[in-house]
Design brief:
Layout (H helix, E strand, L loop, with lengths): L4 E2 L5 E2 L10 H30 L11 H4 L2 H26 L3 H31 L8 H34 L3 H33 L1
Antiparallel strand pairs: 1-2
Helix pairs in contact: 1-5, 1-6, 3-4, 3-6, 4-5, 5-6
């Protein structure tokens, strides 16, 4: 089914209004949902491991959570990732009206905010390594780094995906394939923000208490 619809005024649109059954975009988005479920299982397993290893016996000679987490600094990361999702969501709003400039601007702002998030995370890791706190220090630190780094790698992948879209949108326009990729990217990006909120609560707020 064609992803384009035409309104009474004759202006082509990229959005279906009303229930017209499954189209190509909906079918491929369903497949991406299945991938996201598997990704959620991966994060669920790492969270479970963190919960098990966050105890004094597994600190070994290393620090506890309270000694390495900084909720105030992590809150800045939380603001950065949530506003990045907001910027991308505004890009998808522009997509509904076939506004390529608005889409690209929203994606560009989202990338900048994501880079701020990653910069803060890299700085946190650098400080821990400078103090001699590395993944091989203790079982707790190994799962701590695993959890934060796994999410960070997903964020890096999301930024690379957005950079690719900034190249493809001017080249191909907002056709059905591009819209499908943008919608799947929105799902992926919102999921990363949701995971980070869980990290902030479970690791930073809980660890500092």
């Amino acid at each position: 089914m064609d992803a384009h619809v035409t309104r009474p005024g004759g202006t082509p649109d990229l959005w279906h209004y009303g229930d017209e059954g499954h189209d190509l975009i909906a079918t491929k988005t369903l497949g991406f949902w299945l991938y996201m479920i598997s990704d959620a299982l991966i994060f669920g397993g790492i969270f479970a491991a963190y919960g098990v290893l966050d105890q004094p016996m597994d600190y070994a000679s290393g620090p506890s959570a309270a000694q390495i987490v900084h909720p105030a600094a992590a809150f800045l990361q939380t603001i950065a990732v949530l506003t990045s999702v907001l910027a991308y969501s505004l890009a998808t709003v522009a997509m509904k009206t076939n506004n390529k400039t608005g889409v690209m601007l929203g994606i560009a702002v989202s990338i900048v905010l994501a880079c701020i998030f990653l910069g803060l995370e890299f700085n946190d890791f650098a400080n821990l390594f400078a103090q001699g706190f590395t993944p091989d220090t203790s079982g707790f630190l190994s799962v701590f780094f695993l959890l934060i780094a796994t999410h960070g790698l997903h964020m890096i992948f999301g930024v690379l995906w957005m950079l690719v879209m900034l190249v493809q949108i001017p080249k191909f326009g907002l056709n059905a394939d591009i819209v499908m990729r943008l919608l799947n990217l929105r799902l992926f990006w919102q999921f990363q923000a949701s995971v980070w909120v869980c990290v902030y609560i479970f690791v930073y707020l809980r660890g500092a208490s």
